[in-house]
Amino acid sequence: MKSKRNKRSWAEPYKIKMVELLRMTTREERKKALxxxxxxxxxxxxxxxxxxxxxxSGTSAMxxxxxxxxxxGDEAYxxxxxxxxxxxxxxxxxxxxxxxxxxxxxxxxxxxxxxxIKPGDIIPGNMYFTTTxxxxxxxxxxxxxxIIDEAHDSQSKHPFKGNGNLTxxxxxxxxxxxxxxxxxxxxxxVNMAGGQPISIQNLREIRxxxxxxxxxxxxxxTRVAENAWFIKQREKGYQNKSVKSIVKxxxxxxxxxxxxxxKDALVNIGGFLALxxxxxxxxxxxxxxxxxxxxxxxxxxxxxxxxxxxxIGESVNDxxxxxxxxxxxxxxxxxxxxxxxxxxxxxxxxxxVDAKRFLPHLKxxxxxxxxxxxxxxxxxxxxxxxxxxxxxxxxxxxxxxYFPELELVRLTIPRRVYTQAHMDVxxxxxxxxxxxxxxxxxxxxxxxxxxxxxxxxRFKKL
Length: 462
Description:
Layout: H1 27-36, E1 51-52, H2 64-70, H3 81-93, E2 98-102, H4 105-116, E3 122-125, H5 130-138, E4 142-145, H6 166-176, E5 183-187, H7 200-212, E6 216-220, H8 224-234, H9 243-252, E7 256-260, E8 271-275, H10 278-291, H11 302-315, H12 318-337, E9 350-354, H13 355-358, H14 368-380, E10 382-383, E11 385-387, H15 389-392, E12 408-412, H16 420-435, E13 443-447, E14 458-461
Parallel strand pairs: 1-10, 3-4, 5-6, 6-7
Antiparallel strand pairs: 2-8, 7-8, 9-12, 11-12, 13-14
Helix pairs in contact: 1-14, 2-11, 3-11, 4-5, 4-10, 8-9, 12-16, 14-16
């Protein structure tokens, strides 16, 4: 008789030492909070949120080693000992030659855009990210999407939906010429596609093409360890390799990187710009003094640099990533069992609900993902966020709305924060909202900021 115990469960590779108490709210309290926030989950007060899945940026739990490291903060203005520990961690785990710390990822995006982009330049990339594209536009460039078509289909099961389309890239080079393309913007674990990975094989092909045309590859490595885990699971020849070695191989196929360490690297604040080109590094070191701080602290305290150095090492541990992605998968499988339409395959940092399929009675200009995020909060106090037409913003030349194929609600899982029981609560809430989905009404936008409107826009129910 075949044993039913041939599959064993995994558990979190840590134990809980301290807890943060959560506040439960009533539906009436949540209704008032939503109205006060203009139905924008970014404008909700944290004290009114039960399970916070707005983002995994700076919301993860630090380890005892990280907290201990913060007590070793060398708060010297220049040449802090913590900077050199951080620099060594970047060299060891990612392999880049030079590194400039910044207060977070968008600080690095600002600097790399200013030193590499000229007005009229074209920046191809495997799907836009909000702050990345804005910095490119503010520097005078234009982002052009070269991601494979499957990435725009929430139901496609392609294992590497973060891959770039080489034909699209070659066409851009032919049209504009390599001198108008300062770099290719390549993200690992593509956020706006649902946390979808890029393959090593695709990176190699992109690298070969860009070397032929003397174009650099700049890597958005915010969630590179999660991408490495998917390569380990899905790409031939990598099953027996460590996440750490795969991460380093990914980085070796690029010329530099922007990093929000608030995600993979398990800190509440911090980021960096890494480069292999000495001349660019010198420019970046000069620029960081203007916008962030000295090149050995970049807007961070010594204790933050120390926590980041330790977090980088912890982030590429196989057991950590197995549990991190496993919890996301656990929630996603419950959603699929309940027939809730989500982006597939399940991504690395969150579950992305397909609001178009969830609310087919709403037009895209009625902001269905925004309406769905508000309804989820109203039902259970779970905070999620919109990743659709509001996040996409407007065309910088015409002023028209972008209409992305994907209209999503992102339920982002912070690292080492919530238990499986919390995931059960989230799944049950989505199932309840799905059952009553026909009653959900759309929104109109009544306040629209000039930049990155999804952070501060306000809405009213239609």
